[in-house]
Amino acid sequence: MMFALSLSSSFFGREVYFMDFHYELIDFKDQVPIKSFIVEIGDFAPHLHDEVEIIFVARGNVHIVASNKNYWLNTNDFMVINSREIHYFQRGNDENIVLIIQLDPNIPIMPHSTLGLVRLECNSVDLSDSRTKAICDKVRDNLKCIIYEICTKEKHYELAVYFLVLKILTIIFRNFPYRVMGKEEIKSDNEYLDRITKIFRYVEENYMYDISLHDAASLLHLNEYYFAHFFKKYTGLSFGKYLTKIRVEKAKKLIMDSDKPLTEIAIECGFSSVKMLHRAFRSVEGCSPSEYKYSKIRELKSNLSHEKLGTKSYNIKRKDMQYTQYVAVIDDRSVLDMSYYYSPSNCDVVIAERSEQSVKITLDANKQGKPFTPYWKKLICAGRAAEGLREAWRDQLRELQRELKFEYIRFHGIFHDDMMVYDEQDGIPVFNWQYVDSLFDFLLKIDLRPMVELGFMPDKLKSGNKTVFWWKGNVTPPNDYSKWAKLVRELVIHWINRYGKSEVLKWYFEVWNEPNHGDFWDGSKEDYFKLYEHTVKAIKAIDERLKVGGPAVFQGPEGDLSWIEDFLAFCKNNNLPVDFVSYHHYPVAVAIDENDNTLIICNDDDSTYQGLKRVRDVVMRTSYKNAEIIISEWNSSFSARDLVHDTMYKAPFVIHNVLKCLGLVDALGWWVFSDIFEEIPLDNRMFHGGFGLINIQGLKKPSYYGYWFLSKLGTEEIASGDCYFVTRKEDSIQILMWNYCHFNEEFASGDRTKLTEYSRYEIFDEKRLHINLEVKGLSGKYRVKEYVLDRNHGSVFDAWIEMGAPANPSQEEIDFLKKKMGPECRFYTVETDGVFQKTIAIEPHGVCLIELCKIYE
């Protein structure tokens, strides 16, 4: 028997508002037996319908209560809701995208039985053994194929979906328990469902009035005690909570569709006061009515949801969005996005090729690895010394060290007057180390050693008035080089006396900051060489083993490294030691257009590697080839207001460049760890494009998690490629994969018009990465740990956008965002006879880590 089929990415037929009460009427036009759509499921009160429903969570999570039993469905979980089975939904911790397939209950399943007369016990949540897992995977594969067909809408996709639904039903009936209801059971079911439906209808018609438990019980001629148990038994909610949910749903519609004041809305929806409306909203939605409206308006007006979906290859008109009390329908662009996120690997329907990047990773877990040095841990940077006297700055650094464990820290301004280290009385130097002691005591206590940048010039030693930054660091040469040398010598001796020589011998002393840049050094190249000579001699006179270096230059035009060459030649000619060569690299350049506008040009994605390689090549050609090479500043740009800094781009940027440059330098110091940073006046925006791994409110940005992923790597490298790095630590294997997407040509050439406060992803050439992973050489059981970070999982900037981008978030909102930041984790156990295989789809700018940990029995 053949059935017609109708599918849509939104509801169709008559408008679905659960009609007059919470018995959903699904209109199958012209005897159409199947409807299929992709939606976001929010909270919704108990309801029922004749149709059988298959629910598949493509992303996020959903809490479903069916027949008073709780089911927590996470990504890739599915379940079947039987005909006339009372159920309700609650939004999970994350946003979700869900495939819903509704099946006509009159579809014949077997002789004398239709789908509506069958009671299935089918869900993926309660099943764990290997056989049922394999069966569930077959169902999932076909559900993913349905998503793909709905999203792409290729020719005759309806036939493909119909075919796939029949396959799913066949798998379910062959492998899951079910029973066919007899006449007596049907009669009994209908009796209690009719009673429940009567209550649903009564509440729908009277929610605006003062309804009591007594009123509802009287409707069914029951006492209050028995009614309360009866209602909760079949709906899973107390009558009071159910009534509150209905009233909140009605209030939500009025809040969005009318300009009525909250006092009027409260009365119309049955609340005794605005206070009670607020309390109910907090209970059901987790926010106030005003916050709810604000967040929804921002979602609708900002077009931000479109920006993140990357629908460049599919340009269609946006369909009218229909909102019901049940779901908020996702527009066609979101639907299309799912076709990329769940491109099925096992599908009997032929799927057209897409312009996606696919990578196959095959590796042997028993391959002999090679040790590597996690050089990225050696150095982290901060703004200036005086910021380190603040508790908020210290709290963030403590947290950084707790998770990432850097070895050294570098910052400006140790000699700035706000540290009060130097004064003169009658021309005699006077030293004060109290602030320095406070800062350095703290650093050493959290296992961070200093890379001491010796600068800027104290007021009493300055030779001019030129300053840099908001806090006015003086950048002139000293008026007396011997007094400068004495300042350096006295401070180093103080540190040795306070912390011991064996400790200070492990430190680095860097002479000045970017003397090749006019903003940071108001002297000549020769003046800097003189400063270095006096400094290195003063320190080495204390102990020759103390480590001194420089010149901490910023890359010149087109990577000009003549400053380093001249500096090292001067040191060689004057027999001066250089224990390390320091350099600053930012993979951008500055250009002037025809209208004299300054443009920031983004170099290609190989810029960091090539820049560091050039530095290494220069040093290797000199007499100082054994000197360490320390990149004492590095970031994706040199702007403290670059809006890219807050985005998901930064996590794969960190990983991609750090691992690609492995072996080139001895340290790669990230500039800087915190947005508590004051080279320019403090910005009043929460995500203002600051350099930091952590923003002012303590929220960890994606760049932080780039380092977090690196910290999870083992101690031996066993395989690597352009988008993956595989390590081993004892009996565990770590497979780190990332999808680095570089800037598009327009943005890279200096046009920043598409980079705005709320829209920050239109500037990339984005791709989706599909990885087929095969790990050989395994045997036995393994504990699998999976971590995923992308725009929908762990990017705190994107979570902020999703909550409406509040300009001045409350502490409650900040706490909410803290729960949203960081990778999504999944843990499970596998047993293998030699090979572990997995197909992974990584979103643009996404990162995935899989760790296989051997289980011994």
Kindly describe this structure:
Helix content is 33%, strand content 23%. It contains 23 helices and 37 strands. The chain has an eight-stranded parallel sheet. β31 (724-729) and β32 (732-738) form a beta hairpin. α1 runs antiparallel to α2 (157-175), α4 crosses α5 (224-235) and α19 packs parallel to α20 (702-711). The longest helix is centred in the N-terminal third of the chain and has 24 residues, at 183-206. It is elongated, with a radius of gyration of 32 Å. It starts with 33 loop residues before the first strand and ends with a strand.
Provide a brief overview of the structure.
The protein is an alpha+beta fold and 857 residues long.
What would the principal axes of the Cα set say about the shape? Answer: elongated
Distance, first to last CA: 54 Å
Number of strands: 37
Radius of gyration: 32 Å
Strand order, biggest sheet? 16-17-20-23-24-25-28-29
Mean pLDDT: 85
pLDDT < 50 stretches? 1-23, 28-32, 298-346, 348-355
Task: State the helix count.
Answer: 23
- The helix content, as a percent range, equals 25-40%
Largest sheet: 8 strands, parallel
Proportion of residues in extended strands: 15-25%
Q: By helix and strand content, what is the structural category?
A: alpha+beta
